[in-house]
């Protein structure tokens, strides 16, 4: 019995004979000199919304953090385990990224779970429920709107959660200080899986707009 699923081994063979072959010099450079990406992406775990594929990024270009619902918790130096905060700290303080992009997406299961308060937890630990409670106030407000359809409520909360995460980013001193000095920029984006459309958050209004494509 193979130690990895067959489709992963087949994919690796294609990688070695394809992308790695054409970019082997770049990989050797990264191994020798280390990574120095200018952009961090906070994205969802969803297998349909991979940032490297969406932005056609090469090796070493993006520092990607993925979690359920692409959420950033508020700054909480309480001695507990904080994987998202740890990745953020490393990206900002060590890698010195210049941009942080919070990218949500359509049909997000985590957002759906935040809106559906009737479903039973997937496990006794209810880790997803606890995690998505970060946006509970917004979820309650959106859920109470009877003028929107279920899909409209879903899209609304997907985009609101991006603004929530950006607000939480600013609770981290390392982020707020560098942003104030103009050395770090925060961005929001939303990807529509079904159409491939990318919507970018207007920093002044908070609205999501389609960027002009040449």
TrEMBL record:
One MF annotation (Gene Ontology) recorded for this entry: zinc ion binding
Single GO biological process annotation from the record: carbon utilization
Cross-referenced InterPro entries: Beta_CA_cladeB, Carbonic_anhydrase, Carbonic_anhydrase_CS, Carbonic_anhydrase_sf
UniProt KW DNA repair keyword: no
Domain of life per record: Bacteria
Signal sequence residues: none
Entry's cofactor comment: Binds 1 zinc ion per subunit.
Enzyme class: lyase
Catalysed transformations (reactions): hydrogencarbonate + H(+) = CO2 + H2O
CDD domains per record: beta_CA_cladeB
EC nos: 4.2.1.1
Obligatory cofactor(s): Zn(2+)
Pfam families xref list: Pro_CA (PF00484)
Binding annotation for Zn(2+): 44, 46, 105, 108
Keywords per UniProt: Lyase, Metal-binding, Zinc
Protein role: Reversible hydration of carbon dioxide.
Family of this protein: Belongs to the beta-class carbonic anhydrase family.
Name of protein: Carbonic anhydrase
């Amino acid at each position: 019995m193979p130690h990895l699923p067959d489709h992963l081994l087949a994919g690796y063979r294609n990688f070695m004979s394809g992308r790695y072959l054409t970019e082997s010099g770049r990989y050797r450079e990264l191994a020798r000199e280390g990574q120095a990406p200018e952009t961090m992406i906070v994205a969802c775990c969803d297998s349909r919304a991979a940032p490297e594929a969406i932005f056609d990024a090469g090796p070493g270009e993006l520092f990607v953090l993925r979690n359920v619902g692409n959420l950033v918790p508020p700054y909480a130096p309480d001695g507990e385990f904080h994987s998202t905060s740890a990745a953020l700290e490393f990206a900002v303080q060590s890698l010195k990224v210049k941009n942080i992009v919070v990218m949500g997406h359509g049909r997000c299961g985590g957002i759906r779970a935040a809106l559906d308060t009737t479903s039973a937890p997937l496990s006794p630990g209810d880790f997803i429920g606890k995690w998505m409670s970060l946006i509970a106030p917004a979820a309650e407000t959106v859920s109470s709107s009877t003028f929107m359809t279920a899909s409209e409520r879903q899209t609304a909360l997907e985009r609101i959660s991006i603004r929530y995460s950006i607000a939480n980013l600013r609770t981290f001193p390392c982020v707020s200080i560098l942003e104030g000095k103009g050395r770090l920029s925060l961005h929001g984006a939303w990807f529509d899986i079904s159409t491939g459309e990318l919507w970018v958050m207007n920093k002044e209004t908070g609205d999501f707009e389609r960027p002009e494509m040449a």
